Amino acid sequence: MIWNEHYECMEREELLKLQGIRIKEMVKRVYDTVPFYRNKLQEQGIEPNDIKGIDDLKKLPFTTKQDLRDNYPFGLFAVPQHDIVRFHASSGTTGKPTVVGYSHNDIQMWTEVVARSLTMAGVTKADIIQVAYGYGLFTGGLGLHYGAEKVGASVVPISGGNTKKQLQLIEDFGSTVLACTPSYAAFIGESLVEEKIDPRKIKLKAGVFGAEPWTQEMRMQIEQVLGIKAYDIYGLTEIIGPGVSMECQFQHGMHIFEDHFIPEIINPDTGEVLPYGELGELVFTPATKEAMPLIRYRTRDLTRLHAEKCECGRTLVRMEKCVGRSDDMLIIRGVNVFPSQVESVLLEMSETKPHYLIVVDRANNLDTMEIQVEIEEEFFSDEVKELEGLRQRIKANIASTLGISASIRLVEPGTIERSMGKAKRVIDKRNLP
Amino acid sequence: MIIKQLSVFLENKTGRLTELTGILADNDINISAFSIADTADYGILRMIVGRPELAAQVLKNNGFTVKITDVVGMIIPHRPGGLHKALQIISDNNVAIEYMYAFASGDCKATVVIRADSLHKIIDVLQEHKMELLKEGDVYQV
Fold it and tell me: Which of A32, A226, A232, A387 is least enclosed, having the fewest CB within 10 Å?
């Protein structure tokens, strides 16, 4: 099943033409409405009229996460606030979140691409979909929710957590589709076994999993324990949320909805555009977005694109699972974490040194994060309650800055390895792709 | 009256305590008493040693996190009710004990090392009640 055959199976030539029209229109629009882009284009001597088609995309400057941060919160909006109907946000590098606004049409477009995505996973109006992504500022919950309603499926908006209840509704409601992070899906699977629920009594057939990297082994494990086919969905808040790309039943990579999100692969060091098939950094231009259109946004995700027509009939390019990042961002329990955030928390506290080591692991399929912190010698106390109080303060500050909790281990000063060049700040034991 | 206690931050790592006792042995420093407060990740070693200033210095030079803490040493009769009587006096006078550890040396006396919320108050209270206190001069040979 294909939700929107017109756009998903468009001849590539026609699609490129459409993309050209859309970026031309978008550049003109941001030039008129976003001072940041007008200045940036003027600096580079680019006039909106210089952009005539898709081939001119590479002439345009990049947008980075730093630009979003510099223009926090609403500086990159291209419409007045009264035309914004919703905000979402993801955690940023300095404690300030990355804020995204959506116009009415943006929400419609997002709903459309999620409907296309769910259709790829075989979801129809006959399905009961349990949305166990978090609802709130995070895009996962509400993004999947409205797309599923558009398809006509029955939505169970349970949000994340409360695993006992998840199991109960899977069993009692007969949910057929589960949407959540892959690590949570694996955890639900394990809980199912633990609670001795007969797998024949549940009706799940498909899973729509994303928001964090996962391996092929993990996919097989989830598929086996839940008795489903697991699909990979990709997205990022800055572009729209989940539904930027999605796997079809043939699972040869994720189809990017290129009529809205124009992809490029670049050399992360030089910015040069690379041909299909080469590994590089993924860049998106969400050309149809009204509230916050971005020009050539650098995702920092490393992957390859393939443009050959897929067996499913779609002509949209496919992106491979991301193989890493061109920056040091970690994705822990679906939340973006930058080591520099941890550093800023420790620098603000006089009792600790900014020497730390983040150890990320996966226990029972849930990500765990431990932060080893060196205590400042003068704040060492002979009393346990003082040191435990310090540990709790660090924990609370970390949780409020990162948006997720970490366990804190106090270590002796001088024991965390110093290196001459780039300090080793992270040990990731999860074996992610 | 005031006894110098060495407090050392110790990560829960095999061999870490042995390393410390080795350094003290090499520097001919005798340990009279010690206790360890432990949590899941680390411990705080508290000990009474001969020549505490020197001990603190050599441990610091070897990368340990050390602090000198003022405590009081109380000598009580080594018999049933001995500790109870002393604690009764302390609590009746509203002195809070942060932690304590004790050792009995076989004969008729036992020594209790106490870290109180107020050092001077506990010394006053114990002296008022004619409790025997360890003097700095003899403590390091207890």
Answer: A32
Min Cα distance B42 → chain A (Å) is 7
CB B76 within 8 A of CB B131: yes
In angstroms, the CA A314 to CA A270 distance is 32
Which tokens hold the place of A428? 């990731």
d(CA B133, CA B2): 9
Residues of B within 8 A of A411 (CB-CB) are: 11, 42
Final residue belonging to a domain, choices A295, A327, A359: A327
CATH number at residue B11: 3.30.2130.10
Residue A73 preceded by cis peptide, ω within 30:
yes
In sequence order, what are the beta bridge partners of A89?
A: A99
Q: Which residues contact A248 (CB under 8 A, 6 or more apart)?
A: A120, A255, A310, A312, A314
* A382 with B69: Cβ contact below 8 A: yes
ipTM, 2 dp: 0.81
Would an 8 Å CB–CB cutoff place B57 in contact with chain A?
no
What is the C-alpha separation between A102 and A77, in angstroms, rounded? 9
> Which of A383, A410, A413 has its CB closest to that of B42?
A410
Residues lower than pLDDT 70 in chain B: 138-142
- Residues of chain B in contact with residue A409, where contact means CB-CB under 8 angstroms, are 41-42
Of B10, B64, B115, the CB nearest to A382: B115
Strands B65-77 and B132-133: antiparallel
B44–A384 C-beta distance less than 8 A: yes
Contacts of A413 in chain B (CB under 8 A): 65
In a domain, A31, yes or no: no
Does B44 lie at the interface with A, CB-CB under 8 angstroms? yes
| Cα–Cα distance measured from residue B91 to residue B100, given in angstroms and rounded to the nearest whole number | 14
Task: Give the model's confidence band at A356: pLDDT under 50 very low, under 70 low, under 90 confident, else very high.
Answer: confident
Average pLDDT over residues A304-308: 96
User: Which residue of A lies nearest to B99 if distances are taken between CA atoms?
Assistant: A383
Mean per-residue pLDDT of chain A: 92
Instruction: Write down the pTM of the prediction.
Output: 0.73
Q: Given B54, B69, B84, which residue is the final one in a domain?
A: B69
What residues of B are in contact with residue A415 (Cβ under 8 Å)?
11
The total domain count for chain A is 2
